[in-house]
From TrEMBL:
It comes from the Eukaryota. The lineage of its organism: Eukaryota, Fungi, Fungi incertae sedis, Mucoromycota, Glomeromycotina. Residues 27-147 form the Sacsin/Nov domain. Pfam families: DUF3684, SACS. This is Sacsin/Nov domain-containing protein. PANTHER family: DOMAIN PROTEIN, PUTATIVE (AFU_ORTHOLOGUE AFUA_6G04830)-RELATED. It comes from Rhizophagus irregularis.
Length: 1514
C-alpha cells in the first residue's frame, strides 16, 4: 500500500480531528528574538509614522517621579507599587506620538492580528510583526488614534485586546503608550540622537522629531529639502534591469539640510539632577548638508512573481517605486560640512561603506561609500535583505542592479564636471605653472573622492549585495568607464597605470595621476588584475612617446635607467624592438639617436674635459648609470685608452702645443698599466713617428729624445717633463732613450787594445738597468773574461797572451771550485758574488756552482775517493737550492754507495730498506738512508720487481722460503688483486711430502693450511708460520679443502677415500660439507661428472630390519619422502633424514623422489549406487560449502573452484591400490578410506578426515605437502565461528547458512503453498527476521570499499530496479560522520562532502539513525552514497544497507528543514523494510514481497512509537 493511500485513509476517518493551538506569549517572544537591534521600538514606530504621512514625531520619556501611577509590580502587573526612591532616575513610561492620518478600521484590525502585514504596496511594512516590537519593553501597550483606543492585556499565555471610543477630541496625534515591564535607564542621548538623525536620512514625510524627558525638551531634530534638479541620463545607458522588472525613468538630486539641537548632559550628572536644572545645561546645535539622489523606477513583474511575492509578503509589488542615495560631493564634504558633529557621522560613511535603508538603516552595507534607500524586501528582523527566498532573490537582485545603474549615472555626472573643469582651467589656461598645479591638485582630490565613493569592496554581512551592484555599475553603459588622467578625463582603457620608473620621460601618454592611483589603489588593482579594464605602461607606449618628441639629457637619462631596469628584470624584448628603441630615442639639440652611440666615458681613464669621438655618450648622461648596465643592456662599451689614442693622435695640437702634448702623455701614462701588450704596441706605433715629446731642444720624435739622467754627452736632447713613474713607463714605451748605444761605448772606452775587464764590469753593472735585452745578449756572447792561470785552460794558452772566454764557460773563483779542478774567472782581489759587478757577471752566465752532471760525475768516477765523497756531500748539501730543479731520478750515473762495500748504484737500482736484500736487491749505504729518498731512491722494490724476482728465482729451501714469505707479507698492501690472481697458479712454494722426498714447487691453489689427517696423502699441507700465512692465504692457499676440492677428490678417488677413512660416518661428513657448500661449486662440468660417478652413499632397509650401505650413482638412489612406499619396494634411499642440504645434494646429483616416482592407482571396490548414507550427503555439501577456504592463500592452484561444483561423493566397501616403480608393479589392499577418480570422490563408511584431505590436496594443489593435508582437514572439521576468529573469510558461508535456515523455516515459497499460520510459525518467522538483521550488524566493518558482486539474474518483471547494486568501481569511501560511512562516485571533490549539502546530509543522517534504531541496527550497518545520475534509491550489499542522498534531497529536504515529516519518515522506513527483505531473497519476487510485508508488520508499532517520541505525529 502506498503512502498516498495511508494519508487518504487517515483523512477519511471522521474521528480524531483537533485544532492546533498557539502559545501567543511564546510566539511573540520568539518573534522579538528576531529583533536584536537597539531602539527597535522607535525604528518600527517611526517607520509606521512615515508610512502614515507624519511630518512630526514626539517621543516622551517619563520617570517614576513624574508618573507615580506608572510604577507596577512585575510579578503582578495589575497591582501598583509604592514609589521606590531608587527608581526616580529610571524610565517607567514611554509615549510616542505622530501627526499622521488617524487609524482606519483596517488599521485597527491589522493591529490585533499577528503576521498580517500592510497590504499597501507603497508601504514598507510587510510581515505584520513590527508593532509587536513594543512587547519587548512593555506588557500591555495602549494605542489611541482618531478618538478611539485599543488596549492589550494578557490572560495566561493568551493575548487579548479591547477597543472603544476614548472621548478624546484630539484628531491630530496618534499616540502609543508603553508602561515599562521593568524600569529602564534613560538612553544615551547622543547615541539616541545619532539613531534618530540616521533614521531621518531617507524618510519621505517625516521632518521633525522632538524628544522630551518628562516635560523637558531634551532634543529637537529637523530636516529641510530643496527642490530637486534633474540629472541627465544619456542614451548610452541601459535603464532596464536584466529581467526587465525595473526601468529607471528619471533621476534627480536635491540638497538636504539636517538640523539638530539638544541638551548636553554632563557624564557625572544623574537624571534627577539634570531634570531639576534644565536651564543650566549647555545646548549643542549642529547641522549637515547632504545631496540625496532619487531614481524613479517603473515596475513590471510577471503574474507568477507577483502572486508569489503576495504570498510571501502579503502584498502585491508596486507599479512604481524609487531608489535613493546619499552622496556628499567634494564641496559638501570639504566646505559645507566642516567640523561635523558626531551625531551626523552615520550619514557620512566616506571613506567607509554605506548602509542599505529600508525606511531606516539595516546592518547590510552597500559595498560603496554611499547609503542606498530602496523598497527592497527585508528579512523578518528588518536588518538584512532577503536573498534566500527564490522570488525575493529575483526582485531584490533586480532592484540592486538598478542601484548600480544609478551609481554609474552619478559617477559619470561627477566625471563630466571634472572634465569640463579640466578643459576650461588647464587645457585652455594660459596661467602660470603654479596655478595649473593648484588646479590639478583640486581636480585630483575631486576625482579621488568620486572614485572612492564608487570603488566597491565586499559588502557585509551578505557579500552578494555588493557583487550585484558592482556588476551593474560596470555593465549598464555602452561607454567605457571614464577616469581622470594626466591628459584629462578619458575612457579607462585609454589610460595607463603610472610607473614611477617612467615618470621622468612619459609626458604625452595619459596615465593615472600618482596621487589618484595611490589613494585608489584597491580599485585600480581590481580594474587591472581582475576586470582587465586598464593596463600598465607598455613598451609600445614608450615607442609612441619617443616617436613624438626629442628628449632632454635629464629625460634620456631617466629613459635609459628604465630601459636598463626593464631588461634586467628578464622582460622579453625582440631584437627588432631593441633596434626600434635605439632608433626612436633622440636627445640633445642635434636630435641624436641612441643607435649612433657606441661608447661611454670612464673619467678615471680619460678626463671628461678632454675631446672624445662623436659616438661617445655625453658624460652628463652616463655618469648617472652603472658601467655593467651600459655594457650588458645598452650594448655599449667603455671608451678604451687605445680607441681614444687613435682619435687624439690625429689632433694637430699634439705636435704644436707642448701643454696639450704633456696632457695627452700624462693620460696615456696613467692608463698604461691597465692595457694589453698588443695595445701598448699599437700606441707605440701611433706615436713613434709623431713629434710629441717636449725636449730642451723642442718637440722631438721619441727615438730622438733622452731621459734627463743620460748626461754622457752634453748635446743630447733630454726631455722637458717631470720624470714621474707613470711618465717614465710611457716614455720608455714610446722609445725615449735611457742609455747610449753599446757600440758607441765600445768605440769610446775599449778601442783596439787590451782593457781592464774589472773596470768594464763596474761600468756596465752601473748601467745595467738601462741596457736593452739585445745589448745584454751581445754581452753574454762576447768573450770578455780571462781565465785564472792555475786552471788547465790557462796553462794551455799562456804563450798566446791573455785568452778571453764568455762568462758561461767559467766558474766563480772559490776554494771548493779550485779543489774540484774547475775553470775559474781571473779576478784580482777578493771575489764577492753579491757585489754589483759580481751580480752583473753572474747575470751574463758566470757559473756559481758545478753543473748537475759535473758534480755527479765527480761523485761517481773520480779516482780520488775523498773527492768522490766530498762531491757527493756537496751534491747532498746543495741539492734543494741548486740541483733539484734539473735533477731526474732516472739519471744514468751510478753515484750512490750501497751496503755491499765497493758497490755503487743508480737511484733507480737501489733501495732504502735493507730487508729487500733477502731477495738479492741492492740497499743503499745505511748512513745515507735518510737523505736519498729525495733523489728518487725508493724504500722497497716495486710490486712488479718483487713478482719478477719471485718468478725467476723462487725459494728452494723451506727456511729461505719462510723468510721471503714473511718479507712479502710485510709488502702485501702493494700488490693488486690481479697480482694475487697471477700468484694463485704460480709454483713458488717448496713442498716436501716426507723426509726422504725431494722438494717440489707447488702453487697456492693446491696447498692448504689444515687437512684432515686421513686426507693428507691426497692434499698438500703447509706451515711457514703465522706471518707468512697472511701472504700465502691472500695468494690462494686455503685453510682446508673446500666443497669443490672435496668433490673433485671424490670424483677421482671415491673408493680410495672411502677405504682410507674406514668409517661410513666420516665419509658422510665429507658429503655433508659438499652439500652445505654445494652452491659454491661453480663448475658445471664438475657437477656433470659427479652425476656419473658413484660418490653417494645409498642405504637399503630390509623388511627384517637390516640396513646396508654402499657407494652408488645418484640416479640409483631415491629420496624417501613417502614412508608408505619404502617397505613396498625396499629401494636404495638417501641417508638425508631431515638434512635440507643433503636433500638438495642428492636431488641435484640425480636422486628421485620416491613419492613422485611411484605410480599409485586406488580403485574403489563395492561401489554403492543408491541410498547414500546421510553423512555422505552431508560430507558432499560441506566440501562444496567450504571449497573456497581451500584456496585461501593458495593463489596458483592446479584446479579452480569450479571443479568442486562437478565433484560428487559416492560410497565404496574398500580401496585396492596398485603401486608401480620403474618396471616393478605390486598390488595391495590398503587401509585408506577415500579416493578421487575423475570428478567423483569414493569414501568408505565413516571416512577419516585426513584421507579426504589427502585426496583433495592431491587433486587441487600443484605440489603435495603434508602440511596442506592437515590444513584442509582442519578446514573441513572445525566450526566456522572458530575459523572466523582465526581470520578465515567465512562470512559468506555463515550468511548462506542463515538464509538456508530461514528458507527452511519459512511458511511461504514461490509455489504459494497453502500453510497453516500458527503462533509457533509466526515466532519462527520473527526469529528469522531478527537473525537477518543480526547478520547486518555482524557485517559491520567489512565494507571498506565496494566490490562488485557476481552477476545476479533478475526476474523479468523488474529488469530495472530502484535498488540495483551500483558497481564497486563507481563508488569510493570518502568519509565517516557519526559512525555512518559516506561514499561518492568522485574521489576528488566528492559531492557528498560539499558544504552545499552539509545541512541536508545531517538531516538525512538523523532520519536514518532513528529508523535504524527501530530495527536495532547499529549505525555502522547503514551507509550513505551520492549519485545524481543513478536510478538506485537504495541497495543491500551482503547485509550492508546503502541509501542515496540525492533522492532524499530531491524528494524530502524542502519539507524537512525544520523537522522530518511523516511522509519522509514513512518513505524511508518502507525503504529499510524493502532492503532488509533482500537478506532473504535477491530477486524481486513474491517471496521478496512476503518478507518485505513481514518486516513492515513486525516493526510498524516500534516505528510509530519512535515517531510519537520525536513529535512527528501525535
Amino acid at each position: 500500500m502506498s503512502l498516498d493511500n495511508f494519508r487518504s485513509k487517515v483523512l477519511s476517518n471522521s474521528d480524531g480531528e483537533e485544532r492546533v493551538e498557539v502559545n501567543q506569549r511564546l510566539l511573540i517572544d520568539k518573534i522579538l528574538a528576531r529583533y536584536p537591534s537597539e531602539f527597535v521600538v522607535f525604528r518600527e514606530l517611526m517607520q509606521n509614522s512615515d508610512d502614515a504621512g507624519s511630518s512630526t514625531v514626539q517621543i516622551v520619556f517619563e520617570t517614576a517621579s513624574n508618573n507615580y501611577q506608572a510604577v507596577r509590580n512585575p510579578s503582578n502587573p495589575s497591582k501598583r507599587l509604592s514609589l521606590d526612591r531608587k527608581m526616580e532616575n529610571k524610565i517607567t513610561r514611554i509615549i510616542f506620538k505622530n501627526n499622521g492620518f488617524a487609524f482606519r478600521v483596517e488599521d485597527w484590525n491589522r493591529l490585533k492580528k499577528i503576521a498580517e502585514g500592510n497590504p499597501d504596496e507603497q508601504k514598507i511594512g510587510a510581515f505584520g510583526v513590527g508593532f509587536y516590537s513594543l512587547f519587548s519593553v512593555c506588557e500591555e501597550p495602549f494605542v489611541s488614534s482618531g478618538g478611539q483606543g485599543m488596549a492589550f492585556y494578557w490572560r495566561g499565555n493568551q493575548l487579548f485586546v479591547k477597543q472603544a471610543q476614548t472621548g478624546d477630541d484630539d484628531k491630530v496625534w496618534t499616540t502609543f503608550l508603553m508602561d515599562m515591564r521593568e524600569p529602564l535607564e534613560i538612553p544615551d542621548l547622543e547615541k539616541f540622537a545619532r539613531f534618530l538623525t540616521n533614521s531621518l536620512g531617507f524618510t519621505g514625510n517625516l521632518q521633525d522629531v522632538l524628544v522630551y524627558v518628562n516635560d523637558i525638551l531634551a532634543m529637537q531634530l529637523s530636516k529641510k529639502m530643496q527642490d530637486p534638479k534633474p540629472i541627465n541620463i544619456t542614451p548610452d545607458f541601459n535603464t532596464f534591469s536584466p529581467q526587465k522588472i525595473f526601468n529607471l525613468t528619471l533621476a534627480n538630486v536635491r540638497c538636504v539640510q539636517l538640523y539638530m539641537k539638544r541638551l548636553v548632559i554632563p557624564t557625572n550628572m544623574s537624571l534627577r539632577q539634570w531634570i531639576s536644572l534644565p536651564n543650566d545645561l549647555q545646548i549643542e546645535e549642529a547641522s549637515i548638508f547632504l545631496r540625496v539622489v532619487n531614481g524613479n523606477l517603473d515596475v513590471n513583474v510577471s503574474d507568477e512573481i507577483s502572486s508569489e511575492m503576495e504570498r510571501v509578503t502579503k502584498k502585491k509589488p508596486p507599479s512604481k517605486t524609487i531608489i535613493q542615495m546619499i552622496y556628499t560631493g567634494v564641496d559638501e564634504d570639504g566646505s559645507c560640512n566642516t567640523d561635523v558633529s558626531p551625531i551626523f557621522k552615520d550619514l557620512l560613511p566616506y571613506p567607509g561603506q554605506g548602509k542599505i535603508y529600508i525606511g531606516f538603516p539595516t546592518h547590510q552595507t552597500t559595498g560603496c561609500c554611499s547609503h542606498l534607500a530602496a523598497r527592497v524586501i527585508p528579512t523578518v528582523d528588518r536588518e538584512s535583505i532577503d536573498l534566500v527566498e527564490k522570488t525575493l532573490l529575483i526582485y531584490n537582485g533586480e532592484m540592486l542592479r538598478l542601484a548600480g545603474t544609478l551609481c554609474r549615472i552619478l559617477y559619470e555626472n561627477e566625471m563630466d564636471q571634472i572634465a569640463w573643469a579640466f578643459n576650461e582651467k588647464i587645457t585652455n589656461n594660459t596661467n602660470n605653472d603654479e596655478d595649473i598645479k593648484s588646479i590639478r591638485g583640486y581636480l585630483e582630490s575631486w576625482a579621488i573622492y568620486a572614485l572612492t565613493h564608487f570603488a566597491f569592496n565586499p559588502s557585509t554581512p551578505n557579500a552578494q549585495v555588493g557583487i550585484i551592484t558592482e556588476s551593474q555599475f560596470f555593465n549598464c553603459s555602452k561607454n567605457i568607464l571614464p577616469i581622470l588622467s594626466t591628459n584629462g578625463v578619458l575612457p579607462i582603457s585609454n589610460v595607463r597605470i603610472p610607473n614611477p620608473a617612467m615618470a621622468g620621460f612619459i609626458k604625452t601618454i595619459p596615465v593615472v595621476p600618482k596621487i589618484v592611483f595611490d589613494q585608489c589603489y584597491t580599485f585600480f588593482k581590481k580594474a587591472r588584475d581582475t576586470m582587465k579594464l586598464i593596463k600598465e605602461l607598455t613598451l609600445q607606449d614608450v615607442f609612441h612617446e619617443l616617436s613624438s618628441r626629442t628628449l632632454s639629457e635629464d629625460e634620456i637619462t631617466d629613459l635609459l635607467k628604465w630601459w636598463i631596469s626593464y631588461r634586467s628584470r628578464g622582460s622579453f624584448v625582440r631584437v627588432t624592438e631593441i633596434s626600434q628603441f635605439m632608433q626612436l630615442a633622440r636627445f640633445g639639440n642635434n636630435s641624436r639617436s641612441l643607435n649612433t652611440i657606441r661608447y661611454f666615458l670612464n673619467p678615471t681613464v680619460i678626463p671628461s674635459e678632454m675631446d672624445v669621438p662623436v659616438d661617445v655618450l655625453p658624460f652628463n648622461i652616463s655618469k648617472n648609470l652603472k658601467k655593467q648596465d651600459l655594457e650588458k643592456l645598452a650594448g655599449w662599451s667603455e671608451l678604451s685608452l687605445i680607441n681614444w689614442a687613435k682619435f687624439i693622435v690625429k689632433k694637430s695640437d699634439l705636435e704644436r702645443d707642448p701643454t696639450f702634448a704633456k696632457k695627452v702623455i700624462q693620460i696615456l701614462g696613467e692608463g698604461l698599466s691597465n692595457i694589453s701588450q698588443t695595445d701598448k704596441e699599437i700606441i707605440q706605433q701611433l706615436f713613434s713617428r709623431k713629434k710629441c715629446i717636449p725636449t730642451k731642444f723642442g718637440m722631438k720624435i721619441p727615438n730622438e729624445a733622452y731621459f734627463k739622467e743620460v748626461d754622457l754627452f752634453s748635446d743630447l736632447p733630454t726631455i722637458d717633463l717631470e720624470e714621474t713613474t707613470t711618465l717614465k713607463n710611457i716614455l720608455e714605451l714610446l722609445g725615449v732613450r735611457k742609455v747610449v748605444e753599446l757600440k758607441l761605448i765600445f768605440d769610446r772606452l775599449v778601442g783596439q787594445g787590451n782593457w781592464d775587464h774589472i773596470q768594464l764590469a763596474k761600468y756596465l753593472s752601473s748601467m745595467s738597468s738601462n741596457l736593452k735585452q739585445n745589448e745584454i745578449m751581445i754581452l753574454k756572447d762576447k768573450p770578455i773574461w780571462p781565465i785564472e792561470k792555475s786552471s788547465s785552460r790557462s796553462k794551455k794558452g799562456e804563450s798566446r797572451g791573455i785568452q778571453r772566454f764568455v762568462a758561461r764557460s767559467l766558474h766563480t773563483p772559490t776554494d771548493i771550485h779550485r779543489e774540484f779542478g774547475l775553470p775559474l774567472l781571473d779576478w784580482k782581489g777578493e771575489w764577492a758574488s753579491q757585489s754589483h759587478e759580481g751580480k752583473f757577471i753572474i747575470g751574463l752566465g758566470l757559473q756559481e756552482y758545478p753543473t748537475l752532471m759535473k758534480i755527479l760525475e765527480l761523485a761517481a768516477n773520480h779516482s780520488n775517493l775523498k773527492i768522490r765523497s766530498k762531491a757527493l756531500r756537496y751534491f747532498i748539501n746543495n741539492f734543494e737550492e741548486k740541483y733539484s730543479g734539473d735533477y731526474d731520478p732516472q739519471v744514468d750515473i751510478a753515484f750512490l754507495p750501497c751496503s755491499n762495500r765497493g758497490t755503487y748504484a743508480k737511484p733507480s737500482e737501489c733501495y732504502i730498506s735493507s730487508e729487500c736484500t733477502i731477495m738479492k736487491f741492492n740497499a743503499v749505504s745505511q748512513d745515507l738512508r735518510f737523505q736519498v729518498e729525495r733523489f728518487g731512491v725508493r724504500q722497497h722494490p716495486s710490486r712488479e720487481e718483487l713478482l719478477k724476482r719471485l718468478n725467476e728465482e723462487p725459494p728452494r729451501h723451506e727456511n729461505k722460503a719462510k723468510t721471503i714469505f714473511e718479507y712479502l707479507a710485510s709488502r702485501q698492501t702493494v700488490f693488486t688483486d690481479d697480482d694475487f690472481k697471477s700468484l694463485t697458479d704460480l709454483k713458488f712454494i717448496p713442498i716436501k711430502k716426507n723426509s726422504r722426498a725431494k722438494i717440489t714447487l707447488a702453487s697456492p691453489r693446491n696447498c692448504f693450511f689444515s687437512v684432515q689427517e686421513e686426507l693428507k696423502n691426497f692434499f698438500s699441507c703447509i706451515d711457514f708460520g703465522s706471518k707468512a700465512k697472511i701472504f700465502l692465504q691472500t695468494c690462494g692457499v686455503k685453510n682446508e679443502p673446500a666443497a669443490t676440492e672435496l668433490a673433485e677428490l671424490l670424483v677421482s678417488s671415491s673408493r680410495e677415500v672411502y677405504n682410507s677413512l674406514g668409517n661410513l660416518e666420516k665419509y658422510l661428513d665429507i658429503l655433508r660439507k659438499i652439500a652445505f657448500n654445494f652452491s659454491t661449486i661453480d663448475k658445471p662440468s664438475l657437477i656433470a661428472v659427479m652425476k656419473k660417478s658413484p660418490i653417494l652413499i645409498g642405504v637399503k632397509k630390509r623388511s627384517n630390519g637390516i640396513e646396508t650401505s654402499s657407494l652408488a650413482l645418484g640416479k640409483d638412489i631415491f629420496i624417501n619422502d613417502n614412508s608408505a612406499y619404502q617397505p613396498v619396494f625396499e629401494p636404495f634411499t638417501a641417508p638425508v633424514e631431515s638434512d635440507h642440504y643433503m636433500k638438495i645434494l642428492y636431488s641435484e646429483l640425480g636422486c628421485r623422489s620416491l613419492h613422485d616416482s611411484v605410480q599409485e592407482i586406488i580403485r574403489p571396490i563395492g561401489i554403492r549406487q543408491n541410498n547414500l548414507d546421510p553423512e555422505t550427503e552431508e560430507l558432499e555439501e560441506k566440501i562444496m560449502e567450504r571449497a573456497s577456504l581451500f584456496y585461501y592463500e593458495h593463489p596458483d592452484p592446479k584446479k579452480s573452484i569450479e571443479w568442486f561444483k562437478r565433484l560428487k561423493v559416492k560410497e565404496a566397501s574398500y580401496m585396492e591400490t596398485t603401486f608401480t616403480l620403474d618396471n616393478i608393479t605390486i598390488v595391495k589392499r590398503r587401509h585408506t578410506s577415500a579416493c578421487i577418480l575423475q570428478d567423483i570422490m569414493y569414501v568408505t563408511t565413516k571416512p577419516a578426515p585426513l584421507d579426504i584431505a589427502e585426496q583433495i590436496v592431491k587433486s587441487i594443489y600443484k605440489k603435495f605437502e603434508w602440511k596442506n593435508v592437515f590444513s584442509v582437514s582442519v578446514l573441513l572439521t572445525e566450526e566456522l565461528t572458530t575459523l572466523k576468529r582465526k581470520g578465515y573469510p567465512v562470512d559468506h558461508i555463515l550468511k548462506q547458512q542463515n538464509l538456508r535456515y530461514a528458507y527452511q523455516q519459512s511458511t511461504v515459497n514461490d509455489e504459494k503453498k497453502i500453510v497453516i499460520v500458527t503462533p509457533a510459525s509466526t515466532q519462527r518467522l520473527r526469529n528469522s527476521l531478527r537473525d537477518s538483521i543480526r547478520s547486518c550488524n555482524l557485517n559491520v566493518g567489512n565494507i571498506n570499499g565496494i566490490i562488485s558482486q557476481a552477476n545476479v539474474t533478475i526476474v523479468n518483471e523488474s529488469k530495472t530496479s530502484y535498488c540495483d547494486i551500483i558497481p564497486g568501481h563507481l563508488l569510493s569511501h570518502v568519509g565517516t560522520i557519526r559512525d555512518i560511512k559516506l561514499y561518492d562516485t568522485k574521489i576528488y571533490q566528492p559531492e557528498i562532502m560539499s558544504p552545499s549539502v552539509t545541512v541536508q546530509l545531517n538531516h538525512f543522517i538523523d532520519i536514518l539513525r532513528d529508523i535504524a534504531n527501530v530495527f536495532e541496527l547499529v549505525p555502522k550497518a547503514v551507509h550513505i552514497f551520492y549519485d545524481n545520475n543513478s536510478s538506485s534509491i537504495a541497495f543491500n550489499r551482503d547485509g550492508a544497507l546503502f541509501f542515496n542522498l540525492s533522492y532524499y534531497i530531491a524528494l524530502h529536504e524542502q519539507d524537512c528543514k525544520i523537522r522530518p515529516t511523516n511522509d519522509a519518515m514513512t518513505y524511508w522506513f518502507m525503504t529499510f523494510c524493502h532492503e532488509l527483505a533482500h537478506n532473504f531473497v535477491v530477486n524481486h519476487s513474491s517471496e521478496h514481497e512476503f518478507y518485505f510485508s513481514s518486516f513492515t508488520e513486525t516493526y510498524m508499532s516500534k516505528f510509530l512509537t519512535m515517531m510519537k517520541n520525536r513529535g512527528i505525529i501525535w
